[in-house]
Amino acid sequence: MYQQMIFVNLPVSDLDASKKFFTELGYTINPRFSDDNTASVVISDTIVAMLLTQEFYGTFTKKEIADATRTSEVLVALSAESREKVDELVDRALAAGGTATGETQDQGFMYGRAFDDLDGHTWEIVWMDPAAVEG
After folding, report:
1. Which of 129, 15, 120 is nearest to 76 (CA)?
2. Which of 13, 15, 60, 68 can bridge 120 by disulfide, Cβ–Cβ 3.0-4.6 Å?
3. φ, ψ for residue 93, nearest 5 deg
4. Ranges in the chain, pLDDT < 50
5. How far apart are CA 118 and CA 127, in angstroms?
C-alpha cells in the first residue's frame, strides 16, 4: 500500500545550528537531499522536515517569510508512543536550546507538551491512549 509522505518546509536563520539541534533530538539528516541551503531531517519513514535557509526558502514564495519568534505560521504536531517519550523528546529539545512553550496538557487519555525550535517554530509532542483512539 502507498504510504503518503509529508515534507514540512521551514525557513531557518542558521542551517548548521538547526541541523545540530534536530540531530540532538535523535533525528538524522539525509545527505542525499541536503546541501548548503537545505537539510532534510528524517523524523520517520513518512515525515521529513526540510530546513531551508531564509534566502533559499524565499525562492519558493512571493509572500513575506514569517518570523516565527514573533508570529505563528504553523504548529507542527508529532505523536509519541508514550507519556515518557513526550517528556524525553521535549526535554532533549530544551537541552539542545529550544524553548518551552504553552502549558503541559494532561487530560489522562491524552498528554502533550510543546517547544519552539531555534527559529521559533512550534513543535507539539502528543501521546494519546490507544484505547481512547479506538473507542
Report:
1. 120
2. 68
3. -65, -40
4. none
5. 23
